[in-house]
C-alpha cells in the first residue's frame, strides 16, 4: 500500500511540474528593448557603441505631407513603425510601401498605432509630392505620416536614433541612405525590433510583434 501511495504522490508531483513548465513556456516573452550596445557596431556611431540602456528616439522637427511642421510629440504614447524611403525609388521602396499598406490595414482605426515614413531625398520629396505618394498607397493621414525637411536631421535620425543603416555620413550633398529596414518603436520611444520591409514573412512577424507590444504591461 505504501509503495502505491508513493507512486501516486510521485506521479502527482511530476504532473504538477509538467503543468507549471508548460505554462512557463507558453507565456509570451516580452520583446527585447534594444540599446546601441546590442547592435552590430557598423550600425552605431562610435560615440554610442558602449551605451547599454536608456536609448530613446531623439526629438525632431520635420514637415509632414500636409505641409505642417511637426515634432515627435505627435508620437507621444504611441507604438509606431519607422522607415526611410524616397518616392522615385524604383526598387525596394515600392515593395516596402506595399508592405506598410498591409501593416496599416492590420491596425486600421487604431489610434494608439502609427507609421512614420521619412524621405531620404528631401531636396526632391516636398510635402506636395509626399501627399501624392501617400494617396497612391492609400495612406490614412491619421495613422500614416510622411516626413520631409532638413536632410542632415533626417540622416542623423536614421543613423543615430533608429540605427537603420550601416553607412556613415553627415547628410551632405553626396550622402545617400538606402535601407529596407523597418524599426518598431514603443510608447516610451524605445526600439523594440528590426524587420526586412521587403519580406512578407518578416512583415508578418512585425504585425505579430506590434500585437504583442500592445498587450505588454
CA radius of gyration: 22 Å
Number of strands: 7
Indicate the CATH class of the largest domain: Alpha Beta
* CATH-defined fold name of the largest domain: Glutaredoxin
Mean pLDDT across residues: 87
Task: Tell me the CATH architecture of the largest domain.
Answer: 3-Layer(aba) Sandwich
Question: What is the count of structural domains?
Answer: 2
Percentage beta strand:
15-25%
Helix content: 25-40%
- Our count of helices gives 5
- CATH superfamily caption of the largest domain: Glutaredoxin
Give the biggest beta sheet.
Answer: 7 strands, mixed
Oligomer: single chain
Strand order of the largest sheet: 2-1-5-4-3-6-7
Poorly predicted residue ranges: 15-26
Task: Please render the helix and strand layout as text.
Layout: H1 2-26, E1 61-64, E2 69-71, E3 79-85, H2 92-106, E4 113-119, H3 127-136, E5 144-148, H4 151-161, E6 181-185, E7 191-196, H5 200-214
Parallel strand pairs: 3-4, 4-5
Antiparallel strand pairs: 1-2, 1-5, 3-6, 6-7
Helix pairs in contact: 2-5
Protein name: SCO family protein
Pfam families: SCO1-SenC
Domain Thioredoxin: 51-215
Amino acid at each position: 500500500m505504501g509503495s502505491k501511495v508513493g507512486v501516486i504522490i510521485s506521479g502527482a508531483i511530476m504532473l504538477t511540474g509538467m503543468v507549471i513548465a508548460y505554462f512557463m513556456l507558453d507565456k509570451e516573452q516580452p520583446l527585447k528593448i534594444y540599446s546601441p550596445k546590442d547592435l552590430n557596431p557598423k550600425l552605431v556611431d562610435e560615440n554610442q557603441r558602449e551605451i547599454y540602456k536608456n536609448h530613446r528616439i531623439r526629438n525632431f522637427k520635420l514637415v509632414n505631407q500636409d505641409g505642417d511642421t511637426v515634432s515627435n510629440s505627435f508620437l507621444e504614447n504611441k507604438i509606431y513603425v519607422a522607415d526611410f524611403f524616397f518616392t522615385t525609388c524604383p526598387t525596394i521602396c515600392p515593395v516596402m510601401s506595399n508592405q506598410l499598406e498591409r501593416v496599416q490595414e492590420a491596425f486600421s482605426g487604431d489610434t494608439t498605432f502609427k507609421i512614420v515614413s521619412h524621405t531620404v531625398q528631401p531636396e526632391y520629396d516636398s510635402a506636395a509630392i509626399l501627399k501624392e505618394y501617400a494617396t497612391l498607397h492609400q495612406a490614412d493621414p491619421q495613422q500614416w505620416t510622411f516626413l520631409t525637411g532638413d536632410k542632415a536631421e533626417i540622416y542623423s535620425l536614421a543613423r543615430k536614433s533608429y540605427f537603420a543603416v550601416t553607412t556613415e555620413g553627415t547628410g551632405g550633398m553626396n550622402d545617400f541612405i538606402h535601407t529596407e529596414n523597418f524599426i518598431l518603436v514603443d510608447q516610451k520611444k524605445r526600439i523594440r525590433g528590426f524587420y526586412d520591409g521587403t519580406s512578407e514573412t518578416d512583415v508578418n512577424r512585425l504585425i505579430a510583434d506590434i500585437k504583442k507590444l500592445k498587450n505588454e504591461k
